[in-house]
Design brief:
The complex is a heterodimer of chains A (175) and B (202).
Chain A: H1 4-15, H2 26-36, H3 42-52, H4 63-97, H5 105-133, H6 137-152, H7 157-172
Helix pairs in contact in A: 1-4, 6-7
Chain B: H1 18-21, H2 24-37, H3 43-53, H4 59-71, H5 76-119, H6 123-151, H7 157-170, H8 175-189
Helix pairs in contact in B: 2-3, 2-5, 4-5, 7-8
Classes of the chains: A mainly alpha (175), B mainly alpha (202).
Chain lengths: 175, 202
């Protein structure tokens, strides 16, 4: 079945939900790609998202994998366009208008108001993901370890995710 | 003493705006490099490249553009690419910047996707990915903490954070409805307040 139209619809919709970052759309991403369209399983989504954290560039490039699985090269391409197109266009329009709004008092209100909501969405996305990613003491320890390391020291997060892979091999290999 | 032409002062340099000197190709290349090297988060790399290395925008502009990027839907990385590209060379600059910053990661994840599809169920890969996913949760939590430290403007904001999480994870309202409902509430809470009370209100 041709999945291209569905890929465009889903990712264009997810695009406008990414207030404060890609993770904000994660709960909807899970519902639409895993439960509604069954392009991949929840564990696969978590794996792909997590591996994506090691890739350079914008941190939602994992969507390429979903597009590729569901619709081949064309699928990957339309997913990129659908996911980055709408917000890019919006940013482009705002780029010219925002400066004129400098004196508009509501501009600050919007910024201050959206800050806690985007943090909440990020946290909600994190909880959605944790339900699949944290399954016992070991995985919880890795998550907390990474959190504390990042809060305490200036380390490149990609290195810690890589360290998670090494720890994973040592901890979760069947004996 | 010496000829003025041999000793041009800084002021004597031609007052050509920086924008005019940046070509579409340069924009594409610079963002391609950022896209290929920005492991672990794009923003610091953007600053290092655009402000420090190239001087295409100054620090104040960078902070301003970042705050716009954060208020808009879309990833910071791609919104910044659009804003900077637009400032330097208009629509074409914006397109060159966003393609440049996305291309390396997209190609890499395309290859990763094919590899994972073939080898994803090998025991050692499954084990490694379990560790990677747990580490990613820790990484997201650290982003939550650092964003809370930086961008919250009052203790009451934690109520909005809690409301958002409950709406999405407990009430399953969905992200769009939550965004509109809690977003409007929070924006109204942070509504503009005049120093003096406006006449006629209350």
């Amino acid at each position: 079945m041709n999945q291209i139209p569905a890929l465009i619809r889903v990712f264009a919709y997810l695009s406008i939900l990414t207030v404060g970052g890609g993770m904000a759309a994660f709960p909807e991403l899970k519902i639409l790609t895993v439960e509604v369209h069954k392009w991949l399983t929840f564990p696969q989504l978590i794996h792909v998202y997590s591996v994506g954290q090691m890739a350079p560039g914008p941190n939602m490039m994992m969507i390429v994998v979903i597009g590729q699985w569901a619709g081949g090269f064309l699928g990957a391409l339309v997913v990129l366009l659908a996911f980055f197109g709408p917000t890019a266009l919006l940013a482009f329009i705002v780029a010219s208008g925002w400066k004129k709004l400098e004196k508009w008092p509501w501009r600050t209100s919007i910024q201050e108001g959206l800050a806690p909501v985007s943090i909440g969405l990020l946290l909600a996305g994190c909880f959605t993901m944790a339900k699949g990613a944290i399954s016992g003491v070991e995985t919880a320890a890795i998550a907390v370890g990474v959190l504390l390391m990042l809060l305490q020291y200036k380390i490149n997060p990609a290195l810690l995710v890589l360290a998670g892979a090494v720890l994973g091999v040592f901890s979760f290999m069947p004996k | 003493m010496s000829d003025a032409a041999l000793n041009p002062s800084v002021e004597a340099l031609p007052a050509v705006p920086v924008e005019a000197q940046v070509s579409i190709g340069q924009i594409f290349l610079e963002f391609l490099i950022i896209g290929a090297t920005s492991f672990g988060g794009v923003v610091p790399y953007l600053r290092g490249s655009l402000v420090t290395k190239r001087g295409w925008i100054n620090d104040k502009e960078f902070v301003e553009m970042l705050s716009i990027s954060q208020s808009l839907p879309g990833l910071n990385a791609t919104n910044m690419a659009i804003l900077v590209g637009e400032k330097l060379r208009g629509a074409l600059g914006a397109i060159a910047a966003i393609i440049g910053i996305c291309l390396p990661g997209a190609v890499l994840m395309y290859i990763v996707g094919i590899f994972y599809r073939i080898h994803g169920d090998h025991v050692w890969i499954t084990a490694a990915l379990k560790g990677v996913a747990a580490a990613a949760v820790g990484l997201i939590l650290s982003t939550v903490v650092s964003m809370s430290k930086k961008s919250l403007s009052g203790k009451f904001d934690f109520v909005f954070i809690a409301l958002t999480v409950i709406a999405v994870n407990r009430l399953h309202l969905g992200v769009p409805r939550t965004l509109v409902a809690v977003g409007l509430l929070a924006i109204l809470f942070h509504r503009p307040r005049k120093q003096q009370k406006e006449s006629g209100t209350q």
